[in-house]
Amino acid sequence: MSYKKTIFTGTLILTLSGFLSRILGFYNRIFLSNLIGAKELGIYQLIFPIYMLCFTLVCHGFETGISNLTSRFYAMGEQKNIRRLIHLTCTLSFLLSLILLSILYESAGYLSTHLLHEASAAPALRIAALSLPFVAVKSCLHGYYIGLNRSSVPAASQLVEQCARVGSIYLLSISIYLFTADARIAAWGMVIGEIASTVYTVFAYIYTNLFGERMGRNRFSLRRSHPHFQSVYTMPFSVMVREFFSFSIPLTINHFSLTIISSLENMLIPFMLIPYLGSQTLALECYGTLTGMALPFLFFPATIVNSLSVMLLPAISFSYKQKKMMQIRSTISKSLHYCIIIGIFSTFGFLLYGNTLGNIVFGSQEAGHYVYMFAILCPFMYVSQTLSSILNGFGSTKQTLYHNLLGMGMRILFILTMIPSFGIRGYLYGLLAGYAIQILTDLFCILKVTSFSFSVEKTLLLPAALALAGGWLSQLLYQQVLLPSGLHPFLTLAASGLFYFVFFLSLQLGVERCSC
Prior knowledge:
Elements: H1 3-46, H2 48-75, H3 79-106, H4 108-115, H5 122-129, H6 132-147, H7 152-174, H8 183-215, H9 237-277, H10 280-299, H11 302-321, H12 325-362, H13 365-374, H14 378-393, H15 397-422, H16 424-449, H17 456-482, H18 489-515
Helix pairs in contact: 1-7, 1-8, 1-10, 1-11, 2-3, 2-6, 2-9, 3-5, 3-6, 4-5, 5-8, 6-8, 7-8, 9-10, 9-15, 10-13, 11-12, 11-14, 12-13, 12-14, 12-17, 12-18, 14-16, 15-16, 17-18
């Protein structure tokens, strides 16, 4: 398979699985918002800054380190070393998760009162802590499959987790006399979902090791005739530990640093909203509506960008090591071109349908207003993520960390200074400023390595004109034809949105073909 087809195929597979998971996640959020309300949803969202710190320690570095060593061992046919690596890392990650579980469970009350400034978040935080041992084991096994270039198991595990989460929350809501309709239901759903996906992943791992020879080799593996296949070399235990931690610890430290700043950012938002709104309850409701209802809409198109970013990193890294600069320039130019187009399409779409989406999907006018207000962020978010992946592909992970920290620092500055005076709009200003700084610094570092082509007409002006024309026609269809027809509001919205999508996509593809 060619270089371009590899990126396209991998992006398509990851995008489809991501879309399915996000659709299930949307259903879960809609159900939760109706079940527990905006305030309790805000409390549930409030526990994640602390939870994600623990999650980062037991998952991120372990998963990436396992993936790196597994791919190396597998290429040399050192199956025994892979098994020893998995046993070692699963044990270490599991023990670390038990320690963090104990700390988080015992200190939940203190953290909720003094750090989150919301004592009622303690029960949900204690429940969420129970999932740590399961996500620890699951992340290690996911790293194993990613190292084998078999992403089907992690993708299926994600779907199992979402299905189990939605199903368990629904069942718990029926037994309402046992479980009060508050943030605890959402936390229990998360724990049950993680248990289900971990069980699936463990059984998949057992099946792979028992019947792996019958399942066939992927295209990256060596043939059985290769002299290194099934090598009997056993790496000394001390060397394996040193190799693993030399790779995973720096990644964990970097990601943990970003998580701390990100957690501080999320914890400050509801706290700084209190002076503006004059009520802690209103601040939690506003925070829950923004993070639990509005922002997930903006992140939905980002599924394509996320998948592209995952595929870009190894592709750029490989080309960079091979000194194929023409190929790198072409990849950067096209990836940025399509990310900006997706961002423009999404921005116009949310400007057109943001208010209607909030009312129809969540029954919240405030959620629709936030979708409309934050629509301008889409191009900035998507381009920023793509540039970071490109920079990581060059091996400039430290620069990426510094740029992310700089952007987050700018957002925190705006949260502290702007939200008390301008409310949630101050947070929007901070996001715009933070992403702008991150994009500029990333571009500066990329241009030091290589140049790339960029057409203002093809990438900015023409897509904006197509989105504007498609939006005007779809709104005309919506108001003059679909609304008077008496169809269900969701069907009218879906039909109008589909017309906008088909109109934009068909004309954009026509333009792309003509320019080739």
